[in-house]
Design goal:
25 helices; 5-stranded parallel β-sheet; globular; 8-stranded mixed β-barrel; alpha/beta; 41% helix
Length: 697
């Protein structure tokens, strides 16, 4: 009971360029022709801003907004280009301003891609090749899994009428084989089936590497929010009602497929190198850099990171025209790739910088590589705007054995060395070794360790652990009561020590696992007692990867939850970003195991770094808490963009560190779901909401 689209011979792909940059077609034509794509120019400088007569019939039309008339919109241009009887070309817009008006116009004209000039060409070519690839724009494929033949048939008819290629499956036992053969863009699955529930099948499908990116919509008559959430926690992407109207069903399926495609374009669904440039994708590069950083406690000499920066970018643009520096950086990327060995990896970091992950026989060999690269760039003329110019680069080198906290810190160290080289007039600089850790005060260490031991033993109530509770105020879901459990240590003289002040000593003494279990048992007890008084209460409990990865810990945790009668009100575990980085290989596996037993995870202390966002996209936690400094130090536009990216990835975003009334309005406007901090409510000895003193933000 499935339909397949009819195969037709497709014409050779072609691209029509209507724009003002005479050099752009010259730069991208060889790369497109190598991919079998023809390029023709249908407008240019000095021509009247009118619709090109020969733009019809192309696969992709590139529109430079600088050539539009004063009152001409992108949509009006596209409508005029498109003959009534032909299939419209895919639209790529190049604007000369980041103004949102241009992005809105491009969106309303159904543009497939949007760029802001000047652009180097590599990213544009990659996008054009993707858009011209055979199969792009074909009907999306939907697999419907439902034990009811009648319901499956009705769903199939609705989706087929909307243009989808649909296959239905009644026998859920064959789902993996059918998914592999049919390769759906989305799976629509009934929640309640006799062999296995849709939630269980979603978890099984998610375990298959090839299905990691396939969105799964669960549909049923189920209306209990907690049961819906439990089903989604096992691997589903969204939940829709079986009674949904056909038009809304089509809209939900279409939206989920488009969101998935956007995420795959952003993050990539496989590690790969760009076929045209030989450079790695950012995701691939950061993944390998983090792996190289953590695979050995003592990386060998000669393994490090190089950051290469174009010298005099502004001067080059002034002398050769806007965009010249970007083009020069493009060419430098080619020179870098030529000098890489098979095990090396390079990526373009931003407009004027590249990063290289390399391994040589010694540290001195790294410096030799850097100096050789500088010499090669200086000796190689680059064609810019029809003339030959030479440029220079500065290089910063950071050694992997310098043991930074994460991949981003390593790049920052190499970039800082590169900046110092630039400031000195250009050259090559080796990043300074990080300062040695301060020696541990043995007397203080012994005192803290003894206090922790007494607290765990319960012998001295005056100097024991204390729990405090700080709420996370819901921005949108007012009925939810999320509260973080905070641990302190009483010193016997009415003073309290924060966890950050005594946990490092406890960790060195090997007592963290005991502390984690102490906190968890008390938190579960509090949650059990608050079930009736606060029905919407959920507790966020800090735990450590070293504890959770011990043999039997997950089973112990599940048993404790059930023993406290909390099968429908489970705690949410808080894991710090640094802790997950330190256990990168087991982190995603652990989060998956916890998800299968109905326990959710919140990743805390999130920073705006590619490595951090890459980790979040890998483990897909349901909750993410931004680092306290993010609300104070991140620009509002970037904060809103970051929150939107995390939300689209399926995470509820929590803003922490709201310690001033002025910050309340800032995080509210960013789109976060929850906010937490002293300006909202300070921690209290009981898990209660006392917001009477909060001023209007």
């Amino acid at each position: 009971m499935h339909s397949d689209s009819t195969n037709r011979a497709a014409p050779a792909p072609s691209v029509a360029y209507f724009g003002s940059d005479a050099d752009l077609p010259h730069r991208i034509r060889p790369l497109l022709e190598r991919a079998g794509i023809a390029l023709r120019t249908v407008g240019g400088p000095g021509e009247a801003p009118s619709v090109p007569a020969d733009a019809g019939g192309c696969t992709v039309l590139i529109l430079d907004t600088a050539l539009l008339g004063a009152d001409q919109t992108i949509k009006a241009f596209v409508d005029a280009v498109q003959p009534p009887t032909s299939r419209p070309p895919l639209l790529v817009v190049i604007a000369h301003s980041r103004a949102i008006e241009w992005r809105l116009q491009a969106m309303r004209a159904d543009a497939a891609a949007f760029f802001v000039a000047p652009l180097a060409g590599g990213e544009l070519v990659e996008r054009l090749i993707t858009l011209c690839r055979p199969g792009h724009g074909e009907a999306s494929r939907v697999l419907v899994v439902d034990d009811s033949a009648t319901q499956a048939l009705l769903t199939e008819r609705v989706l087929m009428a909307a243009g989808f290629v649909v296959r239905t499956l009644i026998d859920a036992a064959r789902v993996l084989d059918v998914v592999a053969a049919f390769a759906p863009d989305l799976i629509l699955m009934d929640l309640h089936m006799p062999l296995a529930s849709g939630a269980e099948l979603a978890a099984i499908i998610r375990d298959e590497a090839a299905c990691r990116w396939v969105p799964i919509l669960l549909y049923s008559v189920e209306r209990d929010p907690e049961r819906q959430a439990g089903a989604l926690s096992l691997g589903g992407d969204a939940f829709i009602s079986k009674s949904i109207r056909p038009a809304l069903l089509v809209r939900a399926v279409t939206h989920r497929i488009e969101v998935n495609r956007t995420l795959r374009r952003t993050f990539g669904d496989a590690d790969h190198l760009d076929a045209e440039t030989g450079l790695a994708t950012r995701r691939h590069f950061f993944s390998h850099l983090e792996r190289a950083r953590t695979e050995s406690d003592a990386p060998p000499p000669g393994q490090g990171l190089l950051v290469v920066t174009l010298e005099g970018a502004g001067r080059l643009d002034e002398q050769r025209g806007t965009g010249a520096a970007l083009l020069a950086t493009d060419r430098i990327g080619s020179l870098i790739v030529e000098r890489l060995e098979p095990a090396d990896l390079a990526v373009r970091l931003d407009d004027y910088r590249h990063a290289l992950l390399v391994r040589r026989e010694s540290d001195e060999a790294l410096r030799t590589l850097a100096e050789g690269l500088r010499a090669a760039v200086a000796a190689t003329p680059i064609q810019v705007a029809g003339s030959s110019v030479t440029s220079g680069v500065s290089v910063g080198v950071a050694l992997l054995r310098s043991n930074p906290v994460d991949a981003v810190a390593l790049i920052a160290r190499a970039a800082d060395a590169c900046d110092r080289a630039l400031a000195a007039g250009g050259g090559c600089t080796l990043a300074d070794e990080p300062p040695a850790a301060a020696p541990v005060d043995e007397v203080h260490e012994g005192r803290i360790t003894a206090m922790v031991a007494r607290a765990l033993g319960g012998a001295d109530r005056a100097s024991g652990f204390r729990l405090f509770y700080q709420p996370m105020v819901a921005v949108q879901y007012q009925e939810l009561r999320f509260v973080e459990v905070m641990l302190c240590l009483a010193a016997g003289d009415s003073a309290l020590m924060a966890a950050a002040d005594f946990l490092p000593s406890a960790e060195r003494a090997g007592r963290v696992a005991e502390i984690d279990r102490w906190v968890m048992v008390r938190a579960l007890t509090v949650l059990m007692h608050q079930c009736h008084a606060q029905p919407g209460l959920r507790l966020f409990v800090r735990q450590h990867m070293a504890s959770l990865t011990q043999d039997g810990c997950v089973a112990w945790l599940r048993a404790q939850v059930l023993a406290h009668g909390l099968s429908q009100r489970r705690p949410i575990l808080q894991l710090s970003l640094d802790d997950l980085f330190s256990h990168r290989q087991t982190g995603a596996l652990l989060v998956g195991v916890l998800r299968k037993i109905g326990i959710e995870v919140c990743v805390t202390d999130l920073t705006d770094s590619p490595a951090a966002l890459d980790l979040i996209s890998e483990i897909r936690p349901p909750f993410v808490k931004l680092a306290a400094a993010m609300a104070r130090e991140t620009k509002p536009a970037r904060l809103t963009e970051l929150v939107g990216q995390l939300t689209r990835g399926g995470a509820e975003v929590i803003a922490s560190g709201i310690d001033a009334p002025a910050l309340v309005g800032a995080v509210w406007a960013s789109g976060v779901r929850f906010a937490q901090g002293a300006a909202i409510q300070a921690p209290l000895p009981e898990p209660v909401f006392d917001l009477g003193e909060v001023e209007a933000g």
